[in-house]
Fold this protein.
Amino acid sequence: MLLGNALVVSVGYIGIVYLKLDDLFLYGALVSIALSYGLLVAQMLSNVVSTPLEYLSQAISYASNDNRDETQPNQEKIKIARELVHSLSMEVYNLAASTTAPPVSNASITSISPDAAVTTPLAAHQFIDMLGVPIIGLDQNQQITTLNRAACDYIGMTSEQIINKPVYDVLKLSFQSDENLDSWIEKSKSNTITAVRSWDRVRHSVSEETTKQFDLVARFSADSASGTETTLALYDRTNRYNQDDQEISFVALAVHELRTPLTFMRGYIEIFEDELGPTLQPEMTDFMHKMHASAQQLASFVSNILNVARVEENQLALRLRSEDWPIILQSAVTDLELRASVHGKHIELVVADNLPPIAGDRVSLHEIINNLVDNAIKYSGASDKIIISCSLNTEGVVETSVQDFGIGIPESVIGELFQKFHRSHKSKVQVTGTGLGLYLCKALVRAHGGNIWVRSKEDEGSIFSFTLLPYDQLSAEEKAGEDGIIRGAHGWIKNHSLYRG
Amino acid sequence: MVSSEEHTAGLKTIHFIGDNYMKKILCIEDERFISELYARALQKAGYEVKAVEDGEVGLHEAVSGQYDIILLDIMLPTMNGVDILYKMKDPNVRPTMQSKIIITTNLDQKEDIRKKVEQMADGYLIKAEMTPKELVKYVNQVAEQL
């Protein structure tokens, strides 16, 4: 624009100057300037129009064909392009739907299958059907009202098998972010008329063995004439993301290198304790215990790094099985007793005797307790007591609390406590730590279908509590898997009878 | 009990000769400190242990020897543990191989790879989360299935 204005002003001044000269020379000069200017403007306009179209074309070609020969579009630009493709497709579809059938009746439910495309006079349906991108429409109840041929192929079912089914019965989705499709739709319903949202690396578990990965763009429209409230476009990235997943990440390599010396340390410490322990003086025994506890603490830290990376990459998969919670709890406490005792703390375990078997992933449950007790040790100040209590609450779920009597948490920071790397000003000054433990606890508890929260008062201490579901509360369908129930960190791999949002 | 040791390139063998049959364990592990720790603990528990530091040498030893249990690391020189596992499970490589295979690694595998490896192997351990004594306890449980 600035260049254009400058040219216009220049042409104006040149015109005024040349008016005083010979007419022929004047006209010749003006024509050549106008031609140059015209060419320049045409080129600028061409760039403005063609660049987005180029992104669109590149995005469609790359996304629909999964063609490895196609240059991979810039990720930032492709995000814009795929949303444009999606919006454009939906506008065309909505236009078609609103002029072909009355909305919100069973009769209006339309399958954009090849057959349906033949029966409708409008080319718009054919246009959607010809798109290589799977497109799915949902009604207010998140039931599938429409889908194109690419979506049928992608899901591996016919449109008759899919239409009218709840989307979560057809697609077993897990998301990398806290906000998943369901919560986004609910939020959009409450505060907006139209909204668009995209997610990267969404997983669809086709079977125990097969998972598809795609980027998802969703468009919500509260007053859609077609009766389709939300439309989804799925951009398959299975090959690329699987390739990424198989490469050893930097975190995995770093963890491997940290774990190797840790293995030596734990091995040699064990030998020293077993073979030299009886001959050591009390002070040396104390040093040995501190060394042992430090190695344990380092092992926990390494596990935390790894788990946080898994959560971030949507790679955390827990196997929930029927477990005896008091036994796991006792075993976790036994592992932690040495660490507590070298810091002068004592762990008291109080377990109700009416607890049902819980649905849990043994390793993750150890990690939750490990992190909460580790925090209690760090923040309990001069107090030497940590109480772990466990009971069946009034809602029929198993509630476990870890209580310390230490420095407590200021009310102003409690809301941010479970965020990654969060550390209060006070804790930064007084206690060492990374701010990963509670973030991880939240992810692990949520993956179990539970909740986690804290009650605290400064200088009196804190009580961290979390819930776990009794195994009996899981549906028979979920229990049927030989391999336990697989859960991701952000929301569950959806089986909607159990979905808690 | 009499013991002898021999060293060759990438191969360390520790033989124990006792009155009773001792179960034989092959430890394919490139970190010598770790294989020494494991060999020490397992020998004390009554096993005969051979330690190999190289992937290809380890595979050759696994399919040509008669081992009851094989401890197999993943990150190894010349051939990684997952490839070795596939070869050992390939009936064309050695149809009669009956050894129990326990993966011992510090590498965090992606979930799908880990699941496949777990299904093919008889055990899967993270070395940093297990002391030598705990390893012996685990190996004893696997040995009971032989």
Summary: Residues 1-10, 13-20 of chain B have pLDDT under 50 and may be disordered. The radius of gyration of chain B is 14 Å.
